[in-house]
């Protein structure tokens, strides 16, 4: 009886740890996106300050390529849109994972109690 | 943050809290350090712009091709520079605009540092308080132990 519960407990703990891993992975991905968002926002601010005299170059590999300022602005705007979408996606993912992890924690505590009770019974029989 | 009376927490809880605060203060300290490094870079870049003035136009310079090799060149444009604005974009600006650009960046960083500093101080004070409570609890535990051992002897 106690052994069966212990096995179940172990597999549940493993599942829980998996979720925790996914959670922290998602968390760091979100942080990276946040950093990219800040950087792109700064670039957008700078590009918005430019007038027609300024020439914009884009670094492609080791080469600087002349680029139309409006095109650069459009690219950055598109990138911001994409990053915001990604952040939203990760936000939902995080919520979902947190919900799952809470559920697992509850299952774990009840299993632990069950296990302790079973152990107590086994000792009582001996 | 919810207000918790520190004295109501157990020693392991206090220990955990202290570790968490340690991590947070460390993170904030390194953040400030990084911001300061970047800020110095911008200040240096801004200072080096002062070399680009009319009296230096047409003068000979040595241009580094690698860290150990230089080729001679002449300074024929003292009015324009290329500035890295981030994510691979470079913009050709005149010197005055570039100085404004650096000033903006430096001010921005100063503001960020000013934002972090109070948070760091707050965490520091909180950590101090936690350590104090921990010491108090440990002393209490010690005196309890010594008094119980004397009573058991007697």
From TrEMBL, chain A:
UniProt function note: Binds specifically to cytosolic chaperonin (c-CPN) and transfers target proteins to it. Binds to nascent polypeptide chain and promotes folding in an environment in which there are many competing pathways for nonnative proteins.
Recorded family membership: Belongs to the prefoldin subunit beta family.
Keywords, ordered alphabetically: Chaperone, Coiled coil
Highest taxon of source: Eukaryota
Claim: Protein transport is one of the keywords in the record: no
Coiled coil location: 80-114
Gene3D superfamilies: 1.10.287.370
Complex and partners: Heterohexamer of two PFD-alpha type and four PFD-beta type subunits. Component of the PAQosome complex which is responsible for the biogenesis of several protein complexes and which consists of R2TP complex members RUVBL1, RUVBL2, RPAP3 and PIH1D1, URI complex members PFDN2, PFDN6, PDRG1, UXT and URI1 as well as ASDURF, POLR2E and DNAAF10/WDR92.
Pfam families: Prefoldin_2 (PF01920)
Protein's UniProt name: Prefoldin subunit 6
Source organism of the structure: Coilia grayii
TrEMBL record, chain B:
Superkingdom per UniProt: Eukaryota
Keywords annotated in UniProt: Chaperone
Record has Transport as a keyword: no
Function: Binds specifically to cytosolic chaperonin (c-CPN) and transfers target proteins to it. Binds to nascent polypeptide chain and promotes folding in an environment in which there are many competing pathways for nonnative proteins. Represses the transcriptional activity of MYC.
PANTHER family in the record: PREFOLDIN SUBUNIT 5
Protein name stated in the entry: Prefoldin subunit 5
Family, similarity comment: Belongs to the prefoldin subunit alpha family.
UniProt key word Chaperone: yes
Pfam families recorded: Prefoldin (PF02996)
């Amino acid at each position: 009886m106690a052994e069966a519960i212990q096995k179940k407990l172990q597999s549940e703990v493993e599942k829980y740890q998996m979720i925790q891993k996914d959670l922290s992975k998602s968390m760091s991905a979100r942080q990276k996106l946040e950093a990219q968002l800040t950087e792109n926002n700064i670039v957008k601010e700078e590009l918005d300050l430019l007038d027609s005299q300024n020439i914009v170059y884009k670094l492609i590999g080791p080469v600087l390529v002349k680029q139309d300022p409006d095109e650069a602005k459009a690219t950055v705007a598109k990138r911001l849109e994409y990053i915001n979408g990604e952040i939203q996606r990760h936000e939902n993912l995080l919520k979902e994972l947190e919900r799952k992890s809470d559920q697992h924690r509850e299952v774990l505590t009840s299993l632990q109690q069950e296990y302790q009770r079973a152990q107590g019974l086994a000792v009582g029989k001996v | 943050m919810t207000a918790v009376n520190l004295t109501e927490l157990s020693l392991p809880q206090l220990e955990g809290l202290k570790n968490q605060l340690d991590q947070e203060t460390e993170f904030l300290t390194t953040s400030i350090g990084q911001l300061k490094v970047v800020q110095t870079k911008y200040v240096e870049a801004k200072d080096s712009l002062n070399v680009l003035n009319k009296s230096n136009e047409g003068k000979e310079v040595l241009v580094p091709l690698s860290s150990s090799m230089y080729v001679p060149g002449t300074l024929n444009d003292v009015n324009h520079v290329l500035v890295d604005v981030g994510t691979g974009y470079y913009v050709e600006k005149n010197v005055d605009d570039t100085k404004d650009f650096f000033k903006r960046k430096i001010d921005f960083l100063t503001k960020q540092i000013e934002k972090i500093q109070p948070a760091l101080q707050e965490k520091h004070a909180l950590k101090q308080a936690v350590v104090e409570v921990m010491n108090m609890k440990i002393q209490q535990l010690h005196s309890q132990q010594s008094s119980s051992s004397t009573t058991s002897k007697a």
